[in-house]
Specification:
- The protein has a single domain, classed as Spore Coat Polysaccharide Biosynthesis Protein SpsA, Chain A, CATH 3.90.550.10.
- The chain is built from three helices and eight strands; from the N terminus they run βαβαββαββββ.
- The strands form three sheets. It has a four-stranded parallel β-sheet with strand order 3-2-1-4, covered by helices on one side.
- The two termini are 22 Å apart.
- This is Glycosyl transferase 64 domain-containing protein.
- One of its GO terms (molecular function) is glycosyltransferase activity.
- One of its GO terms (cellular component) is membrane.
- Belongs to the glycosyltransferase 64 family.
C-alpha cells in the first residue's frame, strides 16, 4: 500500500526542505524520491538534514524511504524518467513549491485504488482568460481524473 512522492526540485533547497517535511508527515507516503537536476550533487549536509526531517515528521512506524534521483542535465522532463527501486504502484509527482494537504493526497490515493488503471491528479496552478490574464496557485487547485 501507500504511494511514492516524486518531488521535482532545482536550486531551491529551502522549498525542498519544506516539501519533504510535509510529505514525510503524510501517513500514506511510502517513499520520497527527489528529482535532482543540478550539475552538482546534493551536499551531504542537505541529505543528512532531509533524512532527519523524514525520521522526525513520519506519522507511522514505517519511515518513508528517501532517495535522490540524480540528473546532470537541468530538464523538466527528468521527472518522467524511469524510477529505480520503486516500491509502490502509486506515484504522486509534484514540484517543490506545491504542498497538497495530506488528507487530500490520501483521498486521491483511495480514489486511484478504486480504479488503478486510471490517472488521478491535481492541477495546482490555474490560469484563465477573461478581461485580463490571471495566474495563481495560492489557495486554489483543481482535481482532475483521466480515464484510460
Amino acid at each position: 500500500g501507500g504511494y511514492t512522492v516524486l518531488i521535482n526540485t532545482w536550486k531551491r533547497n529551502s522549498l525542498l526542505k519544506q516539501s519533504v517535511a510535509h510529505y514525510a508527515s503524510c501517513i500514506g507516503t511510502d517513499a520520497i524520491h527527489v528529482v535532482w537536476s543540478e550539475s552538482d550533487p546534493p551536499s551531504e549536509d542537505l541529505k543528512m538534514y532531509l533524512r532527519k526531517i523524514v525520521e522526525a515528521k513520519s506519522q507511522s512506524a514505517h519511515k518513508p524511504n528517501l532517495r535522490f534521483d540524480l540528473n546532470e542535465e537541468d530538464n523538466l522532463n527528468n521527472r518522467f524518467k524511469p524510477i529505480k527501486d520503486l516500491r509502490t504502484e502509486a506515484i504522486f509527482s509534484v514540484d517543490d513549491d506545491v504542498i497538497v494537504p495530506c488528507k487530500t493526497l490520501d483521498f486521491a490515493s483511495t480514489v486511484w485504488q478504486s480504479a488503478s488503471n486510471t490517472m488521478v491528479g491535481f492541477v495546482p496552478r490555474m490560469h484563465w482568460l477573461d478581461e485580463e490574464v490571471q495566474y495563481t496557485s495560492s489557495m486554489f487547485f483543481s482535481l482532475f481524473i483521466v480515464f484510460k
